[in-house]
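Researcher: Structure for this, please.
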Amino acid sequence: MAARARLLISYAHPDDESFGLGGLIAKYVAEGVEVYLICATNGDVGTVKPEFMKGYDSVAALRLAELDKASKILGFKEVFKFGYKDSGMMSSETAKDPDCLWQQPVEAVTRRVVEVIREIQPQVVITFNKYGGYGHPDHIAIQRATVEAFFKASEPGYETGQAPYQPQKLYYSAIAKRQIQMGIMIMRIRGQDPRHVGRNKDIDIQAIVNNAEPVHTTINIGAYSAQWEMASACHASQLGGRTTPRLPQAIRQRVFSKQGFTRIHPKPAHDRVDEHDLFAGVKLDERAIPAPTAQQLEPA
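Model: Predicted structure, token format:
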């Protein structure tokens, strides 16, 4: 495989990629990085207004079509759709469905992620933090499987019919606490309860703050806010990513100009920002490094 920078994002739903990392993806694609996406579910539990269903026979078909549109804007090299059912939130009946992602054995999902890692050989992998961003069971499930896969992909005894391969860096996506706290302040001013946010009032913004992890890496994505918005707008059935009051563009570009990440491997010596590029220190022509230990995969 040619010595190209390759980034794998392992997320749960159609829209996670755009709402969370649209600016970052656009930036790295523009810089010549091959960016790949795992979308673990088909998003079929997402709430959709009837007007969005015109031309589609299921919510899953609609959500995946929205993902395809966003993917063209963002420029993914390839999207791997695992096709699991959406679990819905933790307390929902849909989270008990034996076919949903949350109910799958971690090992089964891990194997699929390992297969993707060995196929595309990314140097850098991104997934959710241990809380799954905002506590969504699908986010937590794909996070656990991705961390396991990062570790197992280099093991010769882990058979998938592919050669072992070890990515060099593993990150959790993160949001700086002050940005979340600013959102909480705005919601309270507007009379909204930050403990019950979203269309179904089942997202707890305060819990996101409480479960935030250290930020070790910040990436300037301010120049890519237009692509970020365009990709997010493709997911119109999910409100285009807007669950909080829309801020003027100039303010959005300033407040959300940097994307934060928690570096899990290599483990940082200190919990502070020490890099501004996910590929800092990466050797593009290196196919493998010694596999990290379980202890090395734990955040500082």
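Researcher: Any notable elements?
Model: The mean pLDDT is 89. The longest helix spans residues 59-74.
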